[in-house]
Amino acid sequence: MRSTDDQQQLQARIILEVRSGRATSRRTLAGALKLSPTTAGQYVDDLIGAGLMMETGLEQGPLGRPKRMLSLKGEKGWFVGIEFNAERVQAVRVDFCGKQTGAQVRVLPASADVAKVWGEIGEMIEKLREGAKGPLLGIGMGVPGVVDLERGVGVEYAFLPGWREVAVTGPMEAQYGVPVTLDNNLRVIALAERWFGDGRGLEDYVILGPRSGFGLAVVHGGRLMRGAHYAAGEAGRWPWPFLEGGRRVHDVLSAPGVWRRLAGVESKAMLPADLWEAIGGFKGETGLVWDEVVSDFAHFLGCVQMLLDTGTYFLHGPLTRLGRRFCDEVLAGMESQFPELRGSMPRLVGSSLGDDAGALGAVSLAMEKWVPGI
Measured on CA atoms in the order 136, 138, 139, 140, is the torsion positive or negative? Predict the structure, then answer.
């Protein structure tokens, strides 16, 4: 006999399987979770009785009897995902089925501090409440920099004044009365690829995040790697031996760093209002600086690949505007600089998700953490 907690955890897993589309019937659900058909059917009946799930229509396979289709009821509640960096805050709303039903974005001024970010987040949640069906069920947060998941704290983010040892989950749960979960913003982007992008079905992949800063998120064996101190992927802090003046990886490979290099401006030059569009203007660039940027990315990824041996890197952020050619040239540079990798080269692809990938990942985190209280 399963305990109440075990039953609720299994109900949550069933909901996730149906929401993801991996389970479309009682039979496929039983197979996905390695349950007996009788046990799977009992749990489905419980969830239908609670008004969270329904069976609709018939799915006829090539053999056997047709199967009734399982689906969730979108009106049973909604989730919010919020992600921010030094330039902007984004939020999305999805219904109980996992369908996006609302979005908000706020650009942050250069003078933004912690109080400004919290104010924008509060306003965005209230805007998303308008037109939402059912109760708010959970909030997911994608927080930049190092996070402490056990304490629910943003430990440090160098690009937002005052962001050090900031309590996140406690104050938000007290204010909104729902579970609040957080993780590093690149790690939640890894979840976005699994739920909304091209990472469906992949067990090993890496998020490459040259955004306002620079970092990685690693999925290995279907699980996020967080590290003993929740700092896995903070590769932007690496000193780079051939960089002058003690600069770090994020100084030269972040989106602002790459734009400044390609634009030929000083390292502290003001950024354009639309960095995505500005970087996209260099899509057909050639010349020495372009080659240096490509070579630096190739060197960095080659070092990472020697450690991780992953199958796919998903490029996120404004550099996706440089197109397929940028990815192809980086891979060619990797193979040239690291001949040992020939025969085990990964893919490097620009993500099909947009700038709201972090918010989508944060809402994925909220959906994955939610447990029904039946």
Answer: negative
In the chain, what are the domain boundaries?
A: 4-72, 76-192+357-369, 200-350
pLDDT band at 124 (very low <50, low <70, confident <90, very high): very high
Q: pTM for the full model?
A: 0.82
CATH 3.30.420.40 is the classification of domain 76-192+357-369: yes
Strand, coil or helix: what is 146?
A: strand
Q: Where does 172-290 show beta strands of DSSP type E? A: 180-184, 205-210, 214-220, 223-224
Fold assignment, 4-72: Arc Repressor Mutant, subunit A (1.10.10)
The residues, any chain, with a CB within 8 Å of residue 15's CB and separated by 6 or more, are 47, 52, 53, 72, 372
- Is the Cβ–Cβ distance between 372 and 105 less than 8 Å? no
Return the CATH fold of 200-350.
Nucleotidyltransferase; domain 5 (3.30.420)
Of how many residues is the chain composed?
A: 374
Residue 104, pLDDT score = 96
pLDDT at 65 over 60: no
